[in-house]
Amino acid sequence: MCLGIPGQLIELSDDNPHVARVDVSGVRRTINIGLLEDEVLVPGDWVLIHVGFAMSKIDEEEAGIALAGLKLMGSGLDDEMDMFRKSEL
Predict the structure, then answer these.
(1) Between the CA atoms of 79, 73, 29 and 43, what dihedral angle is there, to the nearest 10 degrees?
(2) Distance between CA atoms of 80 and 34, rounded to whole angstroms?
């Protein structure tokens, strides 16, 4: 199963406009934000991440609802977090 995980932007790359650091439930990773080049993104914003790519910008309320839903699914969150930890750009 493929899920999107909400992550909060913590840092935008100075070297590459398509790269950012996010925090996902305490795990910090580098992701690709290139698909959102038409969005204004700043640290603190929330994005929905799938296999290392930000797919959409979401608000904090949507992020909370998504995280709560993933927790209800149980292993779905664990599986997605494992994939997220192993992903590299």
Answers:
(1) 170
(2) 21
10 Å CB burial of residue 20 (0-12, 13-18, 19+) is buried
In this model, does residue 1 exceed pLDDT 50?
no
- Is the C-alpha dihedral spanning 2, 67, 54, 13 positive or negative? negative
What CA–CA distance (Å, rounded) separates 57 from 46? Answer: 6
CA distance 38 to 40: 7
Instruction: Show the domains of the chain with their CATH numbers.
Output: 5-86 (2.30.30.140)
Angle at 66 between CA 60 and CA 69, to 5 degrees: 145
- Flag whether pLDDT at 89 surpasses 80: no
